[in-house]
Amino acid sequence: MNRKWVCNLLADFSHPPWTKSLDRVVYMSIGKGGEEQIPFHAYVQPNDTCTVKAHHNATFWSFSRFPEEIQLHILAMCPASTLFQLMHTSSKLRIEASKQFWANPNVYFYVLEKWLMDKAYQGDTLWDVSFLAQVQNVEVGYSLDIDERIYRQQNGRVEIESNLADIFWASLKDRIPNVKRVILNQHSGTRKMGDVLLAMQLLVEASPPGVECSILITEEKQTSESTPWNTDTFQRCLIQPKEQGVWEKRKPGKFRETVLPPPKKFEGPVGRFMELLYQFGWKIPPQRSGLLLLMVEALDRHHFDMGQHEPFSCPFSSCTAYFSNGGEWTIHAAEKHYHDWEKLPEYLPNSSAGTDLRERIQALDRKRREVREQFQKIRDAWRTSHEARRREMKYSMIEQLANDPSWETEEKGEKHWVWEEFLRAVSIVKVGIWSSVML
C-alpha cells in the first residue's frame, strides 16, 4: 500500500459506533487507490432481516392499500437488497422498486475510461455489458495515461485530441443510455495542488446535456515539510464545474458507494481462460485486501464494541502507541502501518470474529492456488501438445472470438487482445508471476 492512498483507507473504514457486520464482503483494490469497491452480488445480497419470501404476500397486499405517497416513502427507505428482490418477486411493486434501485444518487457503478475511449466493445471488458443499460450513476476509473492520449506533447508543442472526448461520450451514452451522473475518478497517480486538469476538464466540458459530471482526484497538499513517511500530505478532492467556466473544489461526500458490475458469462474455451484472468485480477486480490481492512476493524471492535472498553497497545512490536478509545487503533493502523498490513492475521483476536477472518483469508489463498493450478494445466497442455493439437486449440479460441458477440472487438483473429494475452500467458516461466492489464 502506498502512503498517498491512506486518505482513501480512512474513508473506507467503519468507525464507532460500528453498525456493519464483520462478515460482510469487502473489495479493496490496492492498484486503484485503496478505495473500497462492492461486487454487485454483495451489494444486492439480503440479510436475514430483509429477505422477501412468498409468505409475505399478505404484507404486500396490505402495503398496496396504502396511499401511493406512503408506498413511495416506504420504498425510499428500503435497502438495495430489498429493492432488488422486489424487482424480481413482486409484480405490483416491480416498476417502482426498479426506479428506486437505479436512482440512488449515492451509488455509482464502475467502468474504465480506457474501455470507453476504445469505443466500448463488449469483448474489451470482463463485465456484463447488458447490465449497464439500466445504470444512472457511473464512476469512471481514470488513469493519468489518458492525459497523454488527449494532450499530446511533441517537440515542445501540445496537440489536443478533442475527438477522444467525443468518442468517450458517444461510447458512454451508447452503453449506458440512462446515465445522469458521472464521476471521473483518478485512482492512479497524484497531482500537486493547483495542477491544471486539462484533459479531465475537457471531458467534463464535453459532457452531453442532462449529464452531471465531476472530477475526483488525489491531490498533494502544499506543506512546509514533506517526508517519505508523511501520509498527511495527500487529500481527496471533488471538482465540479460551475457557471462561466468556474470550477468548485471541495471534499467528497462520505456516503458514495462504488459497485462493480457483475461479470459476463464465461463460456467455451475463451471463457475458461478468461475466467481465470478475472479471478486472478479482479476477484481474489481485492477481496483479500478487503479482508485486511476488516482485520483492522475486528481488532478495534474486540476491545471497544458491544459494551467493551479494554485499552490496548499497538500489536506491532516496534510501535509503542496505546489506544484508550474505539477508533484510535483504526486510524493509527492506516496512517502508521499501511505498509505492514500483511502481518495483520498474526494479531487477530482469539474470538469467533478473528477465527472467521482467518478462515476466510485461508480460503482465498486456497482459491488462488486452485486458479494457478488450473492455469498451469492450460499452459502445460499447450506446451506439451503436438503441432496438430495446438492448431485445434488455436482454432477453437479464434473461432469463438470471431463469432461470440460477448467477445467482439475492433481487432479480429490473431490480433484480438484475448488471443495475444493467451499466448503471452502460456509462454511465462513461472505461473506465480502471471499478471495482466485487467479490463
From TrEMBL:
Keywords: Coiled coil. Residues 354-381 form a coiled coil. It comes from the Eukaryota. Residues 314-337 form the C2H2-type domain. InterPro entries: Znf_C2H2_type. This is C2H2-type domain-containing protein.
